[in-house]
Design goal:
Layout lengths: L1 H7 L2 H10 L5 H13 L3 H10 L5 H13 L3 H13 L6 H14 L2 H14 L5 H13 L3 H10 L5 H13 L3 H13 L6 H14 L2 H14 L6 H13 L3 H9 L7 H14 L2 H14 L4 H13 L3 H13 L14 H9 L3
Helix pairs in contact: 1-2, 1-3, 2-3, 3-4, 3-5, 4-5, 5-6, 5-7, 6-7, 7-8, 7-9, 9-10, 9-11, 10-11, 11-12, 11-13, 12-13, 13-14, 13-15, 14-15, 15-16, 15-17, 16-17, 17-18, 17-19, 18-19, 19-20
Length: 349
């Protein structure tokens, strides 16, 4: 009954049956935990995990993977360290969750530590592990290592290609990213929307505007992919960098998904570079609605006015910050305490 309810997504009924069971074996605990983790209900999963009388490798893996997939990479790594303390040895599935969590954190030294751990422990280098390693090293900027690992994959799939394309595009290797995309298509592997985000990013960073527009049209007409806000943001950024502000503005206005702060922010920055006050004013007004507390948008518009010696307008925008009590948005840091850092580097991921 618990399995049936979990498979149907009815976790409330599954838990009701689970709680009424006179005796629970490892399978019943694991199935209930699987339901919570697959649904992203990590608080419920954590509470249940704390009650499990015997924590199997499968249970540990579910918790590590679930936290990683739910955007809680530090919690995933903390669980992995707890698993090691409990004397449970990881397998390939557990390491995929650890590697994915490390990729989200994006620290080079952590990526190197995790890669060394995989080698030291003799973890099976199957396609999932290799793809996760490619993604981790690519996101952390270790593009050469990512390429070497990619070459180890016997038959790369769309996930493998996409991970490396993104890494290359994001770390100054745009042409290599586009060459890899050509290879992907030559091997008749269908790109997905995420692949095209990487491709368009590569075109934007390398100034290949016409090529980027061709890829955009191919995505929409050949592959029938509905553009995401991220796709629009890439195109707007690409056109803005090239000074084609009118086209970029038209693209923003044509977005089927509605206004997107990332695309508008890129366009506003381009307006500053090229001194276009008219478009800047239009874009800034939308940003003030979407991100009313983002000081950067006000400061950017003010600096655009100042560059044109429109001192009154510049002062007016700056006064809006005080009038609206706009506060600077908090930054984020992955800096960890020294004790934890020492443990990561000397023992495990």
């Amino acid at each position: 009954m618990v399995v049936g309810y979990v498979n149907c997504g009815d976790l409330h009924s599954a838990r009701a049956v689970f709680d009424e069971m006179p005796a629970r074996n490892l399978v019943s605990w694991t199935v209930m935990l699987m339901g919570y983790t697959k649904s992203g209900l990590m608080e419920d999963a954590s509470d249940l995990f704390d009650e499990i009388p015997e924590r199997s490798l499968v249970a540990w893996t579910m918790m590590i993977t679930g936290n990683s997939q739910s955007g809680r990479p530090e919690k995933a790594l903390a669980l992995f360290r707890d698993m090691e303390k409990a004397g449970v040895e990881p397998d390939a599935a557990a390491m995929v969750g650890v590697i994915s969590a490390s990729a989200q954190i994006g620290r080079v030294e952590l990526a190197n530590c995790v890669g060394s751990y995989v080698d030291r422990k003799g973890i099976e280098r199957n396609e999932r592990v290799l793809t996760a390693l490619v993604d981790m090293h690519a996101k952390c900027g270790n593009v050469d290592q990512a390429c070497r690992l990619f070459d180890e994959i016997p038959v790369p799939d769309a996930f493998s290609y996409t991970a490396l394309i993104h890494g290359l595009a994001s770390h100054g290797h745009a042409l290599r990213a586009l060459e890899l995309f050509d290879r992907m298509r030559d091997e008749a592997i269908k790109p997905d929307p995420i692949t095209f985000v990487g491709v368009l990013t590569a075109c934007s960073h390398s100034g290949l505007v016409d090529e980027g527009l061709k890829f955009w049209r191919s995505m929409v007409h050949e592959y029938k992919i509905e553009p995401w806000p991220d796709h629009y943001a890439c195109i707007v950024d690409m056109l803005g960098r090239a000074g084609r502000l009118e086209e970029a503005h038209d693209m923003v206005k044509s977005m089927a998904t509605g206004s997107h702060a990332g695309a508008l922010g890129s366009l506003l920055a381009a307006c500053r570079t090229y001194g276009n006050v008219e478009i800047a004013e239009s874009v800034a007004q939308e940003l003030f609605v979407l991100e009313p507390e983002n000081t950067g948008n006000y400061v950017l518009l003010s600096s655009i006015y100042a560059s044109k010696e429109q001192w009154g307008d510049a002062a007016r925008v700056r006064s809006m910050i005080k009038e609206r009590r706009v506060k600077k948005l908090p930054g984020y840091s992955w800096v960890e305490d020294s004790h934890r850092e020492q443990r990561l580097q000397t023992k495990s991921p």
